[in-house]
Design brief:
The structure is a single chain. The chain is α+β, with helices and mostly antiparallel strands. It has 3 domains: 92 residues, Uridine Diphospho-n-acetylenolpyruvylglucosamine Reductase, domain 2 (2-Layer Sandwich), CATH 3.30.43.10; 156 residues, Uridine Diphospho-n-acetylenolpyruvylglucosamine Reductase, domain 3 (2-Layer Sandwich), CATH 3.30.465; 179 residues, Vanillyl-alcohol Oxidase, Chain A, domain 3. It is 30% helix and 21% strand. Strands 5, 6, 7, 8, 9 and 10 form a 6-stranded antiparallel sheet that branches. Strands 1-2-4-3 form a 4-stranded mixed sheet. Strands 12-13-11-14 form a 4-stranded antiparallel sheet. Helix 1 runs antiparallel to helix 4. The longest helix has 14 residues. The C terminus is likely disordered. Bound molecules: flavin-adenine dinucleotide (FAD). The site of flavin-adenine dinucleotide has 38 residues, from strand 3, helix 6, strand 10 and helix 11. Flavin-adenine dinucleotide binds next to strand 3, helix 6, strand 10 and helix 11.
């Protein structure tokens, strides 16, 4: 058993929190979206939380954790979904929220401390004389940090134009501290950023992030209502392929979700919808495109003219759709599905008819490996874990892989395969497995491979 008291003594003078309720609260994320993870992880708590003010303090914390063999789990905004930020083996949570400075803005790039909030980075880039903005951000723009997004996120608002975080060029540089007797400070650039991208902080602590920026546009939000869901999806697919129409969101959502959980003032119980964010200069051509479809425009507002009390439209999309549903009905949960190109529309249609209202459709169109595709963040009207497993298995069998949000491991929440690059980096950067232990199956079980089925994951 690691000696936590001795560790805390070594950290004297730092901002330490050992009050049990607060430590427990700061040891959780949005794992409770999943009834499966809720049952498994409810008891999880760190022994203490430390909030370093600068990189020197992070290094001091890491050296002490190494000396006392205490696990360390980094926390940004704590908005991850998969229990990513939850310290399965206790120890120390390192809260980076005080390391939140935007360090440098240049032509097409921004460098910030890892604890900087995405909204603050965007505000700094938009008000800078170069008038730029982040290419992609999660719908947790207000609360998520850039370090947490890189270590735990994947895609989001903007992915219809710019693809996924893991696509080359969407992360420019990462400053990473290794967990060794004497930590090393590495600057990962180019393809090397993939060593720590979406690794849940299991193989390094990111203290600075450099991201690409796009020119800032004046964005307009629209909601279009359709009488038929597959017509809405075909419209979304057609718009997604219009490369010259600048857009950030193309989000079809099946009835009755829009009415039941999202915008009842706009959408009736039978209205399927597509939520959009389009740059102002594209509105005229968008209007002409829409005329060819049986669509009813029920919302149109420039983002900079939104009424004060009105959340931005992106806070009804991506994983906010699930959050809004959960605010009304605590029994729903969700899936994260890839409908791979080029047959994504046909696959969506198959699943839509197969599951009906048991799995209400919510799609996010994206650029995927240079093609148009869509992710499903479908809601699930949850009845039991066994039924959830059946639903997941059916999607997998039919060629629609699920990034299982009911599994807290990197592999389970990803493509079921061990990421050999990240595993190799962990061997060199965290040889004692002190960083967020228990999240990388490839480390815990060298025999694991992609042929292992999901029962294996649940029975661990
Ligand atoms: C309502 C809702 C909507 C969401 N929408 C999206 C979306 O559109 N797209 C998307 O990709 N995700 C989405 N997410 C997931 C999550 O909000 C984002 O990925 C977010 O950017 C995570 O940032 P965070 O600061 O909250 O990270 P945290 O939850 O604090 O951490 C996430 C993971 O990264 C690790 N970590 C955090 N900081 C560091 C660091 N500096 N160094 C090393 N490891 C670190 C943590 O240990 C944890 O494993 C959503 C979640 C919710 C609840």
């Amino acid at each position: 058993m690691p000696d936590i008291t001795a560790l805390l003594r070594d950290l004297d003078g730092l901002d330490l929190d050992t009050q049990p309720q607060r430590v427990r609260r700061r040891s959780r994320d949005f794992y409770w979206y999943s009834p499966v993870l809720k049952a498994k992880l409810d008891h999880v708590s760190a022994d203490a939380v430390v909030t370093p003010r600068d990189e020197a303090e992070v290094l001091r914390v890491m050296r002490a954790c190494w000396r006392h063999r205490v696990p360390l789990t980094v926390r940004g905004g704590g908005t991850g979904n998969y229990g990513q930020a939850m310290p399965l083996h206790g120890g120390l949570v390192v809260d980076l929220s005080e390391m939140s400075r935007v360090l440098e803005i240049g032509h097409g790039r921004v460098r910030a401390q890892a604890g900087a909030k995405l909204c603050d980075i965007d505000a700094a880039a938009q008000t800078h004389p170069l008038r730029q903005e982040l290419r992609i951000h999660p719908s947790t723009h207000k609360t998520g940090t850039i370090g947490g997004y890189v270590a735990g996120g994947s895609s989001g608002v903007g992915s219809i134009t710019w693809g996924l975080l893991r696509d080359r060029g969407n992360i420019l540089g990462l400053r990473v501290l290794t967990m060794e007797g004497e930590p090393r400070i590495l600057e990962l650039r180019g393809d090397a950023v993939q060593k720590a991208n979406h690794a849940y902080g299991t193989n390094g602590v990111i203290t600075e992030v450099e991201m690409p920026l796009a020119p800032a546009w004046r964005w307009c939000e629209l909601v279009l209502a359709f009488a038929d869901f597959m017509t809405a999806v075909r419209f979304a697919d057609a718009l997604a392929r219009e490369d010259a129409i600048l857009k950030k969101l193309v989000t079809p959502i099946a009835a009755p979700v829009g009415h039941q959980y999202l915008r009842p003032e706009l959408l009736g119980p039978d209205d399927h919808c597509v939520m959009l964010m389009v740059a102002d200069l594209a509105l005229e051509v968008l209007d002409d495109l829409v005329k060819a479809w049986p669509a009813r425009q029920v919302w149109r507002c420039f983002v900079d003219e939104l009424p004060k009390a009105q959340p931005p439209l992106f806070e009804y999309t991506w994983n906010h759709t699930t959050l809004n549903a959960l605010k009304v009905d605590r029994t729903v949960t969700y899936l994260q599905t890839l409908f791979p190109p080029p047959d994504h529309v046909a696959k969506v249609e198959q699943m839509y008819h197969h599951f009906g209202d048991e799995v209400p459709m919510h799609l996010e169109f994206v650029r995927f490996g240079g093609q148009v595709a869509c992710f499903g963040l479908q809601l699930v009207r949850y009845t039991s874990e066994a039924r959830l497993d059946q639903i997941i298995a059916y999607h997998d069998e039919q060629g629609c892989p699920i990034f299982n949000p009911h599994d807290y491991t990197l592999e389970g929440g990803g493509m079921k395969k061990v990421d050999q690059l990240q595993l190799a980096f962990k061997r060199e950067a965290d040889p004692l497995n002190l960083l967020n232990p228990g999240k990388m199956i490839g480390w815990d079980d060298p025999a694991y491979d992609e042929s292992a089925d999901r029962r294996f994951l649940y029975e661990r």
